Amino acid sequence: MTDSQLSSQLNGAIEDLITSYHELNAGFVEELDAEPSPLEFMRYVAKNRPFVVRGGASSWPAMQKWDCSYLRSVMDGRLVNVAVTPHGNADSVVENPKDGLKYFVKPFEQDELFDHFLSYVQNQELNGYGGTTVKYAQTQNDNLRGEYRSLLADLEDDINWAHIALQQSPDAINLWIGNSRSVTALHRDNYENIYCQIIGQKHFVLMPPIEFACVVEELLPSATYSPKAIRVNQQSSNAAREADLEKLEVMIDDQGGTVPCATWDPDTPAKPRTNPLSLLGKPIRVTLEPGDMLYLPTLW
User: DSSP string covering 2-28, please?
Assistant: First the structure.
């Protein structure tokens, strides 16, 4: 059997597997009106299927307390880590205009007073701030027990039904703050996630692990956004520093190695960067409203 024949036979078997999965599983995220019991939760874990608990976090104090005024008062004078990108595309595949090559590009990061960061995000969303630079608080280093620890008392630091079922507390509790211009690239996590929405909406595009065969993935060199000239002098005006952040460019990382990246977009599955199985993918879309919880299984 030639390599071509073997590849065709393998693709046929994978196609049958994906088709069977779609026939046996719903093409939507199941919605619950109440929190599941630990046993019910474990059934979803065993099936590796997501679900939404509508209003699952509605009794948390944050749902009544959190608005911009309250957040500013609690976080007054505190520095937070902020990811800065030209188009809201942190940790994503970007074509470098200098050489025409694709890179996995990380955001420029800086510490910023929370009040200044929140005002920027709010003004950009509500008042049509004209800059293209997008700021997003997106650290994944257990930041709610770190730089945002003063807000932790307003949240449940553990989710009882998940704690009982998995017999452990969360490895990390993170807070993310951004506006509608922030976009997360297609990726997968090797752990169970429970995402809780407090303010605004969050739109998810989900794919089960079996559809990984539909995704084109490449090893790309790593790079980082960097201002062409950043004014580190704190005496410089906010306007001057913001102007510098409007001039981000891709800087190739020294000894950064390569990173496996999805270069296929489920929103445009027939566009370039496809493989013979790409059109079999059936992404599932779900939107979280304030108070909702999403269980996102490992590898989704």
Answer: -HHHHHHHHHHHHHHHHHHHHHHS-SS
How far is it, in rounded angstroms, from Cα 137 to Cα 178?
6
Give the model's pLDDT for residue 232: 47
The confidence score (pLDDT) of residue 35 equals 97
CB 108 within 8 A of CB 227: yes
Could you give the C-alpha distances from 188 to 120, 123, 151, 270, in angstroms and in order?
A: 29, 31, 28, 21
Phi-psi region of 162 (alpha: psi -120 to 50; beta: other; left: phi over 0): alpha
Q: Which residue type sits at 260? A: P
* pTM across the whole model: 0.90
Residue with tokens 């609690």: 74
Query: E strands, the chain, where?
Result: 30-32, 51-53, 79-85, 92-95, 102-106, 108-113, 134-136, 193-196, 202-206, 217-227, 248-252, 258-262, 284-288, 293-296
Which pLDDT belongs to residue 239? 66
Residues pairing with 135 in the sheet? 84
- Residue 48: which region, alpha, beta or left (left: phi > 0; alpha: psi -120 to 50)? left
297 token code pair = 């299984």
Mean pLDDT by 10 residues, the chain (300 residues): 82 95 96 97 98 97 97 98 93 93 96 96 85 91 96 93 96 96 93 97 97 94 86 56 83 90 84 84 97 98
Q: What does residue 83 show for φ and ψ, rounded to 5 degrees?
A: -90, 130
The phi, psi pair for 161, rounded to 5°, reads: -65, -30
Burial bucket for residue 4 (CB in 10 Å: 0-12, 13-18, 19+):
exposed
Letter string b/e over residues 264-297, b meaning 16 or more CB atoms within 10 A of that residue's CB: bbbeebeeebbeebbebbbbbebebebbbbbbbb
